[in-house]
Amino acid sequence: MRLLSVNIDHIATLRQARRENFPDPVQAATLAELGGADGITVHLRQDQRHINFRDVRLLRQTIKTELTVEAAPVTSTVNFLRRIKPAQVTLVPEVVTEITTTKGLDVIKQKRALQRIVASLKRSGVRVCIFVEPDPDQIKSAAEIGAQVVELNTDLYSKDLGRRDLQLRRLKIAAEAARTSGLTVHVGHGLNYSNVVPILEENIAQGFSIGFAIIARAVFVGLKEAVFEMKRIIQEVRT
Ligand code: PXP
């Protein structure tokens, strides 16, 4: 069973562009669910530049599917999320000046600190995913510190058009390493309506975290339809 979690950060980005109270990501989540989303994802950045605490609280109370919150492994955010208890927290590295997340978390480098954070989230009943590069060593470390899911970073795959086959092979090897370590495999970053197809054909992942391409298409066809189209691809492409 393949699952699509729709990242709605950019609804909040649009709201914040005018410091208005619309468009509301809570409303967007409902429409995404009507379009067939299996989950809703938001990135709660420390500077709350798009999604804020209010959004996360309301989404937790209102959505009917699974809420995933992407967050940096910092104590204040983690403590907030332990109280909110989304279905999943995806730990990501965060650089204040970046436009979007670009790299996976370096699990090997911060193994001890991350292990404590993973354990505390799990004690609160939250499933923990770590966003990593498709690197078997990082994946092994993620399993060792107790993560249940890894999200493989598809940023390079989506950009390195001249070496797409190589990047796809890297993802495939990484996914096999993750499954061998007992981890569930998700993918995300830079995926769109066409580049997701080879990943589906290779049966690399069970979970798909997709935002920008869907929100961009929604401007022309509406959010429900944009989600519906992506969901259909994810369900129908055969391996
Ligand atoms: N996964 C992670 C960890 C991300 O940070 C993002 C972007 O917020 C996504 C998936 C979704 O990426 P995109 O918006 O390019 O689909």
TrEMBL record:
Chain's role: Catalyzes the complicated ring closure reaction between the two acyclic compounds 1-deoxy-D-xylulose-5-phosphate (DXP) and 3-amino-2-oxopropyl phosphate (1-amino-acetone-3-phosphate or AAP) to form pyridoxine 5'-phosphate (PNP) and inorganic phosphate.
Sites where the protein binds 3-amino-2-oxopropyl phosphate: 7, 18, 190, 211-212
Subunit structure: Homooctamer; tetramer of dimers.
Gene Ontology MF: a single term: pyridoxine 5'-phosphate synthase activity
Active site: 43, 70, 189
Pathway: Cofactor biosynthesis; pyridoxine 5'-phosphate biosynthesis; pyridoxine 5'-phosphate from D-erythrose 4-phosphate: step 5/5
Keywords for the protein's UniProt record, in alphabetical order: Cytoplasm, Pyridoxine biosynthesis, Transferase
EC nos: 2.6.99.2
Keyword Membrane: no
Enzyme class of the recorded protein, top EC level: transferase
Listed GO CC annotations: cytosol
Sites annotated Transition state stabilizer: 151
Family per similarity comment: Belongs to the PNP synthase family.
Name this protein carries in UniProt: Pyridoxine 5'-phosphate synthase
GO biological process, one term: pyridoxine biosynthetic process
Chief subcellular location: cytoplasm
Annotated residues for binding of 1-deoxy-D-xylulose 5-phosphate: 9-10, 45, 50, 100
Swiss-Prot/TrEMBL catalytic activity: 3-amino-2-oxopropyl phosphate + 1-deoxy-D-xylulose 5-phosphate = pyridoxine 5'-phosphate + phosphate + 2 H2O + H(+)
Cellular compartment(s): Cytoplasm
NCBIfam families attached to this UniProt entry: pdxJ (TIGR00559), PRK05265.1-3 (NF003625), PRK05265.1-5 (NF003627)
